[in-house]
Amino acid sequence: MRLLLDTHALLWALAAPGELPAGIRAALEDATNIVFASAASAWEMAIKQARGKLRYPAAELSAALRRVSLIELPVTIRHAEVAARLPPLHRDPFDRMLVAQAQSEGLSLVSRDPAIRRYQVTVLWDPEMQSPRAAYRVKRKPRRRR
Fold first, then answer.
1. Please, which residues bridge with residue 54 across strands?
2. 141 and 53 Cβ atoms separated by less than 8 Å
3. b/e per residue 71-85 (b: at least 16 CB within 10 A)
4. Which burial class, exposed, middle or buried, applies to 51 when counting CB atoms under 10 A from its CB (0-12, 13-18, 19+)?
5. Are 31 and 68 in contact (CB under 8 A)?
6. Tell me: the pLDDT tens digits for 20-78?
7. 33 contacts 27 by C-beta, under 8 angstroms
8. For the chain, first and last CA: distance in Å?
9. DSSP string spanning the chain?
């Protein structure tokens, strides 16, 4: 299988792989699978880190990818063209780019995001699988009611 990790799956794979669902962990550890990490995810992580919403050191991502044998997937003009043609089923531009990359490159997308399943893309994440804790996220302050 050729897999593309959604940003949350990438973060869990790097920061807390033991908390991923067993089936996903097995797929990532299977040497016959080729696993990609998108430049779009790196960009999303850098933006979230700059806004104080992510603790993971985005500047160390390249080294982390090499340590766990993930392949970098650049964003190309062809990917942007495919993303532009996607129906507006998902508002997150990073997720839309990941869908476009998965479609363009014949990849299965590893994501727990239910909105992604509405696109014509193979998604590897059983909806029944338990979601890991987001240990890498900064805790948000509760919203005040108006």
1. 137
2. no
3. eebebeeebeebbee
4. exposed
5. no
6. 999 999 999 999 999 999 999 999 999 999 999 988 877 788 889 888 889 999 999 99
7. yes
8. 49
9. -EEEE-HHHHHHHHH-GGGS-HHHHHHHH-TTSEEEEEHHHHHHHHHHHHTTSB-S-GGGHHHHHHHTTPEEE---HHHHHHHHHS-SS---HHHHHHHHHHHHHT-EEE---GGGGGSSS-B---TTSPPPP-TTBPPPPPPPP-
All structural domains of the chain: 2-118 (3.40.50.1010)
Task: Read off the pTM.
Answer: 0.84
**Contact in structure between 100 and 79 (CB atoms under 8 Å):** yes
Copy the structure tokens of residue 73.
């997937």
> What does the alpha-carbon distance between residue 39 and residue 54 come to, in Å, rounded to a whole number?
17
Which residues contact residue 123 at a Cβ distance below 8 angstroms, ignoring those fewer than 6 apart?
Answer: 108, 109, 110, 111, 116, 117
